[in-house]
Amino acid sequence: MSLIENIIRPEVRALSAYHVPDAGGFVKLDAMENPYILPETLREELGRRLADVALNRYPVPSYTELKARICAKLGVPAGYDVILGNGSDELISIVSVACAKPGAKVLAPTPGFVMYAMSAKFAGLEFVGVPLKPDFSLDKAAMLAAIEQHKPAITYLAYPNNPTGNVFDVADMVEIIKAVGDTGAVIVDEAYQPFAQDTFMPRLPEFPNLVVMRTVSKLGLAGIRLGYMSCSGALLTEFDKVRPPYNVNVLTQAAAEFVLEHVDVLDAQAASLRWERTKLAAELTALPGVEVFPSAANFLLVRVKNPNITSDGVFSALLDRKVLIKNVGKMHPLLENCLRVTVSTPEENRIFLDAMKASLAS
Ligand SMILES: *Cc1c(COP(=O)(O)O)cnc(C)c1O
């Protein structure tokens, strides 16, 4: 046996690394980033704040000030605290590790966010995917049956879902949270909350097994890597034991504290993007051979329904025109011929639309 076979777990060897394409020179519409930056005056003030940060010191691991600001500005209910992660990706990993009892399982609707399954595998948990219906709504009966059968320690519900963009029915979600009861945690992943403008956060006191997870990434701060998560104090305490003590660095901490004082700027950017989403959806719908799915996120899922070209063909034709989106057509049978595109500025949306038109005609 080789060194690799001797030491690396077979499930890790079987995985392919999460592929992030190099987007140099492209109009980048593949990763749900906010295309806007902070206004000049705020950037200068942020620069001065960051210059004052003591880079020689470890972060203070309680993160009291940043957490207080998140709770106050982002709607965490009174009496609830948050745990911070280096992006919500790290929070997913923390939850997986904390719950990785032998034989424990993770359940989520599919197609869904790939990190739920990846993180489960890394922690040695079994992942159970329950297909959505063809219209991407929850198959409630199948979810309830899977919960009964597998007793998952963790159930993920992304609200809105990625890569489909839709929000699940709230009554269905509540039934699932209740059905899981005290046999598992249900994580409602609200990465796209600024674009959905709906949230389970105020409902935390109703459900002791509910965990609400969010990130500042899609709001406009993807580069600083900061996620936060709230749930009942007892559960939060256990998750916090698994968190590396200095997981959020001092620059991220200072930048987040500063930006949260000006969160109205990011809220206004999200409002523009919601408006652009409506316009882009209407223009895409008007193209022949394109189906656009309803979205409550900052991206649109579209299906190519053209006898002459597949989603692979459109994806490559867009690449030739220096536009990078995400080809999800091979990700799941329900996504056949589907593409996912981030909603951006009016200028970039125009470039994308023109490239789409040309690609469909090619
Ligand atoms: C983007 C995304 C995340 C990851 O967010 P980070 O904080 O950048 O790690 C989590 N969940 C969903 C559904 C996402 O789309």
Walkthrough of the structure:
Helix 8 links the parallel strand 5 and strand 6. It is globular, with a radius of gyration of 21 Å. The protein has a seven-stranded mixed sheet, sandwiched between helices. A four-stranded antiparallel sheet has the order 9-10-13-12, with helices on one face. Strands 1-11 form a two-stranded parallel ribbon. With 362 residues, it is α/β, with parallel strands linked by helices. The structure holds pyridoxal-5'-phosphate. Pyridoxal-5'-phosphate binds next to helix 5. Pyridoxal-5'-phosphate (PLP) binds next to helix 5.
Number of strands: 13
Task: Give the helix level as a range of percent.
Answer: 40-55%
Number of helices: 15
User: Total domains, how many?
Assistant: 2
Give the C-level CATH assignment of the largest domain: Alpha Beta
Structural class: alpha/beta
Distinct ligands: pyridoxal-5'-phosphate
Q: What Rg, in angstroms, do the CA atoms define?
A: 21 Å
Order of helices and strands: HHEHHEHEHEHEHEHEHEHHHEEHEEEH
What are the low-pLDDT stretches, counting only 5+ consecutive residues below 50? none
Average residue pLDDT = 96
Q: CATH homologous superfamily of the largest domain - what is it?
A: Type I PLP-dependent aspartate aminotransferase-like (Major domain)
What is the subunit organization of this protein? single chain
Q: Which range does the strand content fall in?
A: 15-25%
Q: How far apart, in Å, are the first and last alpha carbons?
A: 50 Å
Principal-axes shape call: globular
**CATH fold title of the largest domain:** Aspartate Aminotransferase, domain 2
